[in-house]
Amino acid sequence: MAGTSSSARMRSQRWLKRQGRLAGFSALSVVAALSPASYDRITGRGLAGMLCLGAWQMLPGYLLASILISTVLTRIVAVTAASYGLSHLALEAIVRVLVLELIPLAAALFVALRVAPVTMQRLGRPAGDPPPAYRDLIPYTVGSAGAVIVLAVLSGISALAVAYLVVHGISQWALADYARLIGQVFDPTMAAVFSIKLMLFAVVVGIAPTTVALDAGPLDPVVRQMRVMARLLLMLMVIEATLLILPRL
Amino acid sequence: MPPADNQLPPPDIPNAPLKAAGLLLVTLLAIVAFVLFVMQARGVFQPTQRLLLVAESAEGVAVGSTLTFSGFAIGRVVRIELGDDGKAHLHIEVPVADARWLRTSSVFTLERGVVGGASLRAFSGLLEDPPLPDGARRDVLSGDASAGIPQLVASIQQLVINLERLTAEQSTLSSTLENLQKFSGALNGRHGALNALLGSEKNARQVIEALERANALLTKADARLFGRDGLMDKAELSVGELAQLLGEARNALKKADAILGNVNEASSDLDMLRNEVEATLRRVTALTEQLNQKWPFARERELKLP
């Protein structure tokens, strides 16, 4: 009994220690990313490569997918709202659900699925090898984070345009009302929450795959990568849930 | 943390810096354009004037809610506070360009629907009135659709009970409708409305016969009254004769007046005659007394005491 409790205590201590290491690693990565001295020509080239991998190559497919999903969702919501006589609430619901919640999350997941395997493959090291320098992580962290922001912003704007076209068609006469609605949805609080959420998603997608560099050990690389991906998904969900609850407190 | 030499560099993509710069530039432009769009949509660049609406309750109203006029948004709630008077103070920003729809006589209402938020509406009946000044304070008339629902439900329940009572088989309405049906059947019968009103065909026939007799009587009466040598002609003749008689009576009366004048004069002669007769009688009386005194058989009038 005493042996079980002491082993549980030891496990929890080890878990806490690991979380502390992860937090310290993440904080130092952010500091390195924000330090202008970290950037040189080689870093810039690597960063551009990661940005292209996460955003440029993904952009056509992701834009197409987001436009398609936006069209379908907008149509469903608009028709359902109209059948209940609530057409005036449909566009606001679409903007709130699609642009503020779903598209940033989808962008983060898309970029994570695209860049995380590459990052983990490049940064994974066998046991005993020294970990990489923070400067070497910058192309992966900043490039992935930038890709999340690029995809979320561009697909969000395209979703706004699609929602207008699906509901009002090619008509300019509802533009003023639509602009007022967007202005109403993006009030200072919501704009701040949206920006913070986007930044946190970007940071998580940027940093989480690089934590594979910390996990050097006897573990199988595949298991290590799975743990990193699970950590990334968990962090995304925690951020999403926190920012859904916080503005209502 | 020392650098490691065994790791692979990031993937090498052709023209990666150019593509990345282009992407970042487009994204940056999109962000700036969107921020400017939202600021413009929120009226940051428009000159505005303030309006304070005082409502009993701010329920359903949120910062950002619109004030509409004729269905168009002309203002926006920018602040909601509980005033010192215990009422909700809704601070509205109205763009100066749209403020022309608000007049000093404008009425503001706050309507709460069953679904969705409350809607603030402005009504300006007289657009010739002076414009609403900046910082004006107005009371809001509240209309709550959901507040009346329990009362409405109770009323509807009562209404349904009444309807059930009305439409029951033994109800007054049912018997009335039956009577009405009988009435309409009678209306469509042989003697129509008469039959329906009098209850039976026999009565209707009697009324019709009476009418026919009355018609015949009227025809006869017409002939007797207004026909040749009828009652009216005779009456006319009688009236003529009566006028003649009246003329004669007038003459007779004049003569009677004259006779009465003569009688009056005769009565004054009678007075004189009467005076003369009286004087004569007095003289005769005196003569008689003298004769009595001189008459030898005159009795002595004396009173003898016992």
Give the tally of β-strands of chain A.
0
Radius of gyration of chain B: 61 Å
Helix content of chain B: 40-55%
Largest interface: A-B, 48 and 38 residues
Characterise the protein shown here:
The complex is a heterodimer of chains A (249) and B (306). Chain A is 81% helix and 0% strand. Chain A has 249 residues and is mainly alpha-helical. Chain A has helices at 2-34, 41-56, 59-83, 87-123, 134-168, 175-185, 188-207, 221-245. Chain A contains eight helices and no strands. In chain B, helix 3 crosses helix 4 (192-198). Chain B has a seven-stranded mixed beta barrel. Chain B is built from six helices and seven strands; from the N terminus they run H-E-E-E-E-E-E-E-H-H-H-H-H. Among the domains of chain B are: 48-147, no CATH class; 153-214, no CATH class. Chain B has 306 residues and is of the alpha/beta class. The chains are: A mainly alpha (249), B alpha/beta (306).
List keywords for this structure.
heterodimer, A: 249 residues, mainly alpha, B: 306 residues, alpha/beta, seven-stranded mixed β-barrel, 52% helix, disordered N terminus
Give a quick precis of the structure.
Chain A is mostly helical. Chain A has helices spanning 2-34, 41-56, 59-83, 87-123, 134-168, 175-185, 188-207, 221-245.
Fold topology:
The complex is a heterodimer of chains A (about 250) and B (about 300).
Chain A: H1 2-34, H2 41-56, H3 59-83, H4 87-123, H5 134-168, H6 175-185, H7 188-207, H8 221-245
Chain B: H1 16-41, E1 48-55, E2 66-69, E3 72-82, E4 88-95, E5 107-112, E6 118-123, E7 136-144, H2 149-167, H3 172-187, H4 192-198, H5 201-226, H6 231-294
Parallel strand pairs in B: 1-7, 2-6, 5-7
Antiparallel strand pairs in B: 1-4, 2-3, 3-4, 5-6
Helix pairs in contact in B: 3-4
